[in-house]
Design a protein that fits this description.
With 402 residues, the chain is of the alpha/beta class. The chain folds into two domains: 199 residues, Rossmann fold; 162 residues, Rossmann fold, CATH 3.40.50.
Length: 402
């Protein structure tokens, strides 16, 4: 790409040798339909998807590192071109716009394609299994740009198991997966599944997180008094297990935070209402429903234990929110987090095991302190902004040197 020196090498300094021109960092564009509410921190728009939270973190991280960063998002009523923390946000189409069936082509494809041309970035980044993977791959092929697909879930690399509603969109996703320049995965399992099922070598870049500046990173265990669950209320997240845990530990305080999954994600009718009613029937459970990300953070500051009850995950942002604060985690899913070859947190097979471990983390101060230190050490070595930025910069340099 013009202006980007292929001679740039990590750690050596791009222009230390005589005659080298200063290297221009590439312009990176996130193609992410639901990113605006999270990036703009708009509390009136009830969208806090994990993929969107992660892209919001990365967009700000890249911008602070000196990259030009753009976003293409849906039309939520924001200006045609908005700016958030130095990030340019271009709006595409309104979700409900157009005639059913035909709107797949117009305004969805036409509007997205037009926005990508207007942005004119060097690298286009798209996260989470969708037909858009094929769109960015084809756009970049035609216009001499570079494309990255980033996995958001272990199921993204399991054929037929992606959260994609239509067969047409699944075919497009897999076509895009075969043609993007690079694939980024969150963990070793995704890396192996991508190789086995799709014949592509993927780059492992862990997700990252940065706690709010006012977050108490070293709060003592004695100031943490609750057991926390945060996520989208969806059947595969199994919040009912968390509620059963609350029944078994009536002396402990439980807080459940999460809004309903969006339409089109195969959510069982009435499931959210069922979970809400059940949670509110338990005296030791506080059901908060949907909360904007900024209002979720303080609950992590008060948590003694974080619980995850999902069937599958990739690398949940909630794990990193907990580990950055040294909050031990108890989960039904193993995301592959290891420190010196040993699991970072306790994985349980049933509610009985979960209750035993949660109670121990309250009763045994030494066990809590060791678990807390382990989580924090792993976070700093694998998921800090510094570590993740370094990996992406190496990927960007390699892409632009091609």
């Amino acid at each position: 790409m013009a202006g980007f020196s292929a001679a740039r090498r990590e750690g050596a300094g791009a222009c230390e040798r005589a005659g080298d021109a200063p290297a221009r960092k590439p312009h990176v564009c996130f193609v992410s339909p639901y990113l605006w509410p999270v990036l703009a921190r708009d509390p009136s728009l009830k969208i806090v998807g994990g993929a969107e939270v992660q892209q919001s973190i990365l967009a700000r991280l890249f911008r602070r590192a000196g990259y030009r960063v753009s976003v293409i998002s849906l039309d939520y009523g924001q200006p045609a071109l908005a700016e958030v923390d130095g990030i340019s946000v271009h709006k595409a189409y309104r979700r409900e716009a157009g005639i059913p069936v035909l709107r797949f082509l117009h305004p969805r494809l036409t509007s997205t394609w037009r926005a990508m041309r207007e942005v004119d970035a060097d690298i286009y980044y798209q996260r989470s299994a969708a037909y858009l993977t094929a769109v960015i791959a084809e756009f970049c092929r035609r216009h001499g740009k570079r494309s990255i697909y980033a996995g958001a879930s272990d199921m993204d690399f399991q054929p037929g198991k992606q959260q994609i509603r239509y067969g047409r969109d699944r075919w497009l996703f897999e076509h895009g997966l075969a043609n993007v320049d690079r694939i980024v995965v969150q963990n070793a399992r995704q890396q192996e599944d991508c190789r086995r099922h799709y014949g592509r070598e993927a780059v492992l870049v862990p997700s990252c997180y940065e706690p709010p500046p006012d977050s108490p990173r070293d709060a003592p265990a004695s100031s943490r008094d609750l057991i926390l669950w945060v996520g989208t209320i969806h059947t595969y997240k199994q919040p009912e297990i968390f509620l059963e845990l609350a029944r078994r530990l009536p002396a402990r305080r439980f807080v459940l935070i999460g809004g309903s999954a969006t339409p089109g994600t195969a959510l069982r009718p009435g499931y959210f209402e069922q979970v809400q009613a059940e949670a509110r029937s338990l005296p030791n459970v506080e059901f908060k429903g949907f909360l904007p990300l900024a209002e979720v953070e303080p609950w992590f500051d008060r948590a003694r234990v974080f619980v995850n009850t999902s069937v599958y995950e990739g690398m949940p942002n909630t794990f990193m929110q907990a580990w950055a604060r040294g909050i031990p985690t108890v989960a039904t899913v193993d995301v592959g987090a290891r420190l010196e070859g040993k699991p970072v947190y306790r994985t349980v097979q049933d509610v009985a095991q979960a209750a035993e471990e949660v109670e121990r983390l309250f009763a045994d101060e030494l066990h809590w302190a060791r678990s807390s230190a382990r989580c924090r050490e792993y976070f700093e070595s694998s998921h800090s902004g510094r570590e993740v930025l370094g990996r992406y910069e190496r990927l960007f340099e390699e892409l632009m040197a091609r």
